[in-house]
Specification:
The structure is a single chain. By secondary structure, the protein is of the alpha+beta class. It has one domain: FAS1 domain (Roll), CATH 2.30.180. Helix content is 27%, strand content 21%. The protein has a 6-stranded mixed sheet with strand order 2-1-8-7-6-5. The protein is globular and about 40 Å long.
């Protein structure tokens, strides 16, 4: 059995995430997933980054402090560990950027229409799902459309809360992991509607 590493090391050790790892570090967005977590990272592959126009990449990379890039990358992280099997069963989930991602299982698992190429890559502080496209927050897209049309739309967000420690709720067959500090087992959290 191979030893698990944290999210940053797991991403660094997989060549298909070299661009994602580089931009995480250059924008300091890697600090978002350095803690105990657990986190879910939707990691665009190198091929996903080749779909981004050079002019856009240059804009992100040339910006002082790379704030827009860091914000975009925070949209690729959930503040909970969510296995792929759970993604298709619930509504949208709120990312660290405060904006939502949506899931669809029609014709394969997708996050905001981006195909999931590899699933459930486990790390000590979370899980990684490889994407074929860099995610763009739909709120920004919808705001531009609503502004042009003179209307606004509202969505009901859901929150992600930890699962009870004695039950695994996602039907995933993986063995629970232990946290380094407490030794307590952690399970994939359910995605539940927020109460307004």
């Amino acid at each position: 059995m191979s030893e698990r590493h944290n999210l940053i090391d797991t991403l660094e050790n997989d060549g298909k995430f070299s661009i994602f790892t580089r931009v995480l570090k250059s924008s300091k967005a890697d600090q978002l997933i350095i803690g105990a977590g657990p986190f879910t990272v939707f990691a665009p592959t190198n091929d996903a980054f080749t779909k981004v126009p050079d002019s856009q990449m240059s804009k992100w990379l040339d910006q002082p402090n790379q704030a827009d890039l860091a914000s975009l990358l925070s949209y690729h992280v959930l503040p909970a560990k969510v296995f792929a099997a759970k993604m298709g069963t619930e509504g949208p989930a709120t990312t660290l950027s405060g904006e939502e991602v949506t899931f669809d299982v029609t014709n394969g698992l997708k996050v905001n229409g981006s195909g999931v190429q590899a699933r459930n890559i486990e790390a000590t502080n979370g899980i990684i799902h490889a994407l074929d496209t860099v995610l763009t927050p739909p709120v920004k897209q919808m705001a531009a459309i609503a502004s042009a049309a003179g209307t606004a739309s509202a969505a009901t967000p859901i929150s992600i809360s930890p699962a009870p420690q004695d039950a695994q709720t996602d039907g995933h067959s993986q063995t629970p992991t232990e946290t380094a500090e407490s030794g307590a087992e952690t399970m994939a959290p359910p995605i539940t509607p927020a109460i307004s």
